[in-house]
Amino acid sequence: MIYRLLALNVDGTLLQTNGRIHRSTKDAIEYVQQKGIHVTLVTSRSFASARKVAKALKIKTPLVTHQGAYIAASVENPVYVSRIKEDITHDIVRFFEALPCQIRLVHEQFSLANKFKIHHDMLVKTVFTTGDPLFYSQQFVNSLSEYLQDQPLTPLKIEIYFEEERDLKDAKQALEQMYPEISAIELDALRVDIVPSGVSKLSGLTYLGSQLGVSLSEMVYIGDALDDIPLIEAAGLGVSMGNSPFPVKRASDWVTRSENEQGVAYMVKEHFRKQQPIQFLRKMKIIKN
After folding, report:
1. CA–CA separation, 28 vs 18, rounded Å?
2. 75, 137 in Cβ contact below 8 A?
3. Using the 8-state DSSP alphabet, how is residue 276 labeled?
4. For 63-99, how does the pLDDT look when each residue is reduced to its tens digit (9 = 90+)?
């Protein structure tokens, strides 16, 4: 099979646990792009945060960000945008304000959150890894619902960080019954992302592929999280990281090394070195476009 696009999750895949990209990973991404293969990021992160990673890897293909709600190469010219309506946003915020959790409204240019003290260290690290504050404003207010009454907002997604696992399960079930206009994507036992109905990482990657003329069967996807499973299953080659939980590994065609063992670089060396450059394949009329 000839692969024409490599799509990667960011956290737990490209980034090591120290938040850095290993030199071998950068070299591997450059190697793939030199072969004429598109490379993109598919992430729950904001566009501002994902673009920093893409810049370090010299990726110019549009990025699938905000769980698929925002696809762009530049914030000024998005390829695709889907937002949660003002009234639904307000209702969801009121619903979650009755629970002990952090509520974060995420826009492509800023985020807005309630002042809730997070006690889990892992959650603190997750919440505060969203882009450069010089270019991406992060504001905290005492009452989100009161703020939205005066300044309505149509976010790309709403991130909820819970203290208790049972609160997430109950809230997710109740939300999906009350609001068919949204989808609740469970990232782990303490976090759920709320996006417009029909939006997902998979729908975003599929849309990007249609714009580039690349089918899912011509894609390689590498990920590590539960919300990566649909992409791993749909891609021509679905790869999970060695640090992935078992359900993710079970869904994949191939398991590479962990993020701290340069799993992305290892996978690229094992698979893409065997594939001829896209330009050569076109010249030999093996592929048409």
Report:
1. 19
2. no
3. P
4. 999 999 999 999 999 999 999 999 999 999 999 999 8
